[in-house]
């Protein structure tokens, strides 16, 4: 099994992701690129599986493949949590638009008391929502029966691959249920109150160690391929959980933001340096924001760059409105804040739809890859 091309592609993709301006890291546009890189790796992985079906017949290779496909089920839950998080951010952005509209000075050069009160109410509502979502880690969406809109033909070939397991609502932690056509929708349901993003990551990371030389030989290199794809999957999901306000019912945001999952990628993998660099930079970003005081207010909302801008703007504007006692308010006193809010809203409007589409695409690719792999194992 020649893995050089696969490893080279992984290196190229993640090296490009790490060679960016610091201000771009963890932005919406960068997250789209991250998911795009993962999707490319997954496509290459699927192609290798398809071209080397005979390897899956080996008992040792079967074990590695099964472990990866179990991790894929857990990945679906995290991708769903990220989808709900996008909806949370959209709700925040709508409140910011209300503030911008209330403080519009295009027609008048001053802000009247009525405009100010509307803006202040929207600002206070937004601040309360962001604090609530920090405390509940997105739980306001956890009871929604949300689907990525899988069509029956997306997984029709896997309708017999559920192996008798019925994947129930409430997440897939520890489950090895299938993704057959009759159950693919249940796999995309929002998770239960007890579901935890950090625990899900820890479950994916469990027993993920570099294969020993004898395992590499016994599987003709297949063990290396699966370890590589599993490590890439784990890293991308860790970034997703760090970036978005994902539900984490049983652990503090410190845990899943600060590196609960340990990455141990041997140096002989050409892409290990790029992934390790990104991991270190993201952990440092978490530490810097925590030092900046976010942990006492809205920290836990995610490390996404746009969320950070929202939080800072809300804090500054909250302080500003507390100091207003006279009306009308001159335009120059609010113009800077309104311009910043408008910029954030524009970034969210332009970026959230492509991000959601990319999350949807990633989810479907994970489902399809697992369905195809399980089908190969059954033959």
TrEMBL record:
This is Uncharacterized protein. InterPro entries: ROH1-like. The chain crosses the membrane at residues 222-244. Coiled coil: none annotated. GO terms for cellular component: membrane. It is found in: Membrane. It holds the Pfam family ROH1-like. The keyword Repeat does not apply. Its main location: membrane. Residues 171-183 have a biased composition (Gly residues). It is a single-pass membrane protein. Belongs to the ROH1 family. Residues 149-185 are annotated as: Disordered. Keywords: Membrane, Transmembrane, Transmembrane helix. The keyword Cell membrane does not apply. It comes from Genlisea aurea.
């Amino acid at each position: 099994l020649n893995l050089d091309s696969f490893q080279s592609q992984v290196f190229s993709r993640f090296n490009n992701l790490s060679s960016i301006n610091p201000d771009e890291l963890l932005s919406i546009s960068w997250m789209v690129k991250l998911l795009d890189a993962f999707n490319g790796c997954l496509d290459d992985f699927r192609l290798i599986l398809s071209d080397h079906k005979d390897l899956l017949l080996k008992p040792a290779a079967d074990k590695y493949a099964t472990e990866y496909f179990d991790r894929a089920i857990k990945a679906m839950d995290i991708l769903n949590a990220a989808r709900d998080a996008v909806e949370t951010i959209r709700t925040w952005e709508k409140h910011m638009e209300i503030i911008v509209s209330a403080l519009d000075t295009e027609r008048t050069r001053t802000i009247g008391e009525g405009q100010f009160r509307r803006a202040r109410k929207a600002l206070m509502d937004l601040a309360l929502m962001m604090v609530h979502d920090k405390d509940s880690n997105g739980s306001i969406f956890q009871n929604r029966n949300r689907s990525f809109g899988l069509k029956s033909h997306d997984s029709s070939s896997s309708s017999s691959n559920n192996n008798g397991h019925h994947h129930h609502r409430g997440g897939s932690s520890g489950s090895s249920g299938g993704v057959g056509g009759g159950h693919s929708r249940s796999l995309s349901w929002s998770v239960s109150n007890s579901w935890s993003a950090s625990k899900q990551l820890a479950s994916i990371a469990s027993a993920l160690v570099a294969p020993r030389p004898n395992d590499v030989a016994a599987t003709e290199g297949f063990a290396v391929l699966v370890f590589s794809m599993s490590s890439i999957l784990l890293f991308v999901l860790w970034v997703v959980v760090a970036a978005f306000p994902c539900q984490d019912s049983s652990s503090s945001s410190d845990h899943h933001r600060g590196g609960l999952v340990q990455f141990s990628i041997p140096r002989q993998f050409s892409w290990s340096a790029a992934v390790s660099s990104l991991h270190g930079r993201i952990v440092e970003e978490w530490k810097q924001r925590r030092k900046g005081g976010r942990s006492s207010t809205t920290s836990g909302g995610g490390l996404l760059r746009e969320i950070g801008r929202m939080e800072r703007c809300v804090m500054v504007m909250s302080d500003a409105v507390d100091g207003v006692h006279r009306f009308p308010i001159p335009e120059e006193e609010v113009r800077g804040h309104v311009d910043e809010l408008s910029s954030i809203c524009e970034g969210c409007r332009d970026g959230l739809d492509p991000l959601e589409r990319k999350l949807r695409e990633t989810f479907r690719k994970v489902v399809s890859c697992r369905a195809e792999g399980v089908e190969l194992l059954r033959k």
